[in-house]
Amino acid sequence: MSEEAARGLADSCDRLAERMRQAREGAAPLTAVRGFPDLPSGHALTRGFAAKGQEYLDALSAFEQTALRHKAAYLAAASLFLEADAANSAALARTVADTA
Asked: With contact defined as beta carbons under 8 Å apart, do 18 and 67 qualify?
C-alpha cells in the first residue's frame, strides 16, 4: 500500500475514533435511568434500560478500538511501523481504560 493511501485511511480512522469517543461521552447519561415508580416492575425496568445503555457504551468503545486497530493495520501495510506501533499502543490504552 502506498504511504499516501495509508495515511489517508489512518486519518479517516482517527476521525471515526474521535466521533465514537464523542458519542460515548454524550451517551453516558443513558446508564443513569430514573423516573420509574418504586415498584418491583419499576426497578426491573430501571435495571433493564440501564443495562441497555451500558451495552451501547460498550459497543461505541469497541468500535473506537476497532478504528484504532484498523489505523495500525493501514500504517503497517505501508511499512510505517513506528506509527503503526503507536496506533496499536493507543488502541491498547483505550482497551485498558475501558476495563478500569
From this structure: no
Grid coordinates standing for 36?
Answer: 420509574
pTM summary value? 0.82
Cell 435511568 belongs to: 33
**pLDDT (tens digit, 9 = 90+) per residue, 17-54?**
999 999 999 998 888 888 777 888 888 998 999 999 99
**What are the grid coordinates assigned to 8, written together?**
489517508
Other C-beta atoms within 10 Å of 40: how many? Answer: 8
Q: In Å, how far are 28, 29, 49, 91, 96 from 65, measured between CA atoms?
A: 18, 21, 24, 5, 11
- Distance of alpha carbon 4 from alpha carbon 80, whole angstroms: 11
Please state, in angstroms and rounded to a whole number, the distance separating the CA atoms of residues 97 and 57: 13
Separation between Cα atoms, residue 78 and residue 76, nearest integer Å: 5
